[in-house]
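The pair is quoted verbatim below.
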Amino acid sequence: MLTRRLAPLIAGNFFVATSFMIVAGLLNEISNSLQLSISQAGWLIAGFALMAGVCGPVLATFGSRIDRRKLLSVTLGICALSSVAAALSDTYSQLMAARMIAAASAAVYSSQAAATVSMLLKPEERGPALGRLMTGWAVGSVVGGPLTVLIGTHFGWRAAMVSVAVGGGIVALMVWRTVPPNVHVPPLNLQRWIDVVRSPALRLLTLTSALSSVGNSLVFSYLAPMMQDLHSASGGVLASLYFINGLGGVAGSLLAIALISRMSATRVANTSILFVICVLAIWPFGGAMLTAVFLMQFFWSAGTSGFPASQQTRLVAVAPTLAAGTISMNSSVSYLGTTVGATLGAYAWPFTGALYLPWVGAFFVCLALAVSLIGERAARREEASAI
């Protein structure tokens, strides 16, 4: 029964991931269509992430008392309609506004789907279930990202937006039909948010997510222009790279699910971060070779995709009753990290160029690993004091 209910929630993450990544894959097409610079087009990514980061905790608070079936299906529906609005946009400001609406709804869905699953399961079952839930993001990279790139490069970015809208509407109906009614999470109020903020472990672990997001998005947001500069790649080659990125994501997610059951979620999270650091560090040495880029993209994606499920498991383990808040805040700071990363990437691009931008991202991922280690020590202290 749980597997049947989990499937549409995974599909929802697939849709949200595709909606989130669509602009990055079509950055060149959008900039040419609206006569924007790459840096200006990059603000569409940063703006989406900023809105998602700001709205996540706020909307999670107001939505915590709403039946999960209504909340999750309606937010997916709004995200789908916003893609239609994006396709109909004639100006940069209209497109930005449509993406802001999509961001707000996406922020609610991803975090609250995870919080809903965590409340339905025993502690020992949460890690694998959250890992399976996050495979929706990875499969979105395998199928959704490359497919929208192919559609966008052959039929225009507006057609790609419409295809995402159609898929989102179908998934919203799936969620409505399969998620049972009258499922609620513990309501969030001011005191629960104070409890979240007071915990040093929760603060440090969410900061880990933010720094990791900054480093990864600083590079990934500009992958399409990087490939254009280094290899004159577009269309099929670029879609293939996003497909390889997705394959790495699925591999990393599935491996993380298996490892969380055998070793601590902390070790999985820290190993994933270390993996990303290694790939970004060697990127400039292989970036000029197309085959090496494909290999590095696979392993980079495997590392980034192994992190979210293990990180969510850590947060829930620290404070299970605050899961709706901690997962929402974790998603929020990750989106905000994407905003910062995309913005810093826009400023760094003229100085580093396509080849050395990954080193800037690696710096922030190194900070994430350091904070993660400190946060785990804080979590152990809190666990010991609670006994």
